[in-house]
């Protein structure tokens, strides 16, 4: 008797409902892409406009925090190998 697992038996995420978990994981990937794009824009503004330096710095800081928290969600859902100690440190 073989103890092979069917594809349906393999969990993809840490959610009880893998479909919901996969949707959440895809949302975190999109957040990652969007925050990176805006952070890059903020850096460009900061480099080229001295008068907007403080606004760009604030925007970049907020987005970097969102990106960091998003990485915790990603790791919690099942995309990554972030240790629990790092998760607790980041979340505070």
State the gist of this model.
This protein is mainly α. 70% of the residues lie in helices and 0% in strands.
**Low-pLDDT windows of residues:** none
How do the helices and strands follow one another from N- to C-terminus?
Answer: HHH
Strand content: under 5%
Shape: elongated
Question: What level of helicity do the residues show?
Answer: 55-70%
* Counted beta strands: 0
Largest sheet: none
Structural class: mainly alpha
Radius of gyration: 18 Å
Q: How large is the count of helical segments?
A: 3
Structural commentary:
By secondary structure, this protein is mostly helical. 70% of the residues lie in helices and 0% in strands. It has helices at residues 18-48, 53-77, 84-91. Helix 1 (18-48) packs antiparallel against helix 2.
List key phrases describing it.
0% strand, 92 residues
Layout of helices and strands:
Layout: H1 18-48, H2 53-77, H3 84-91
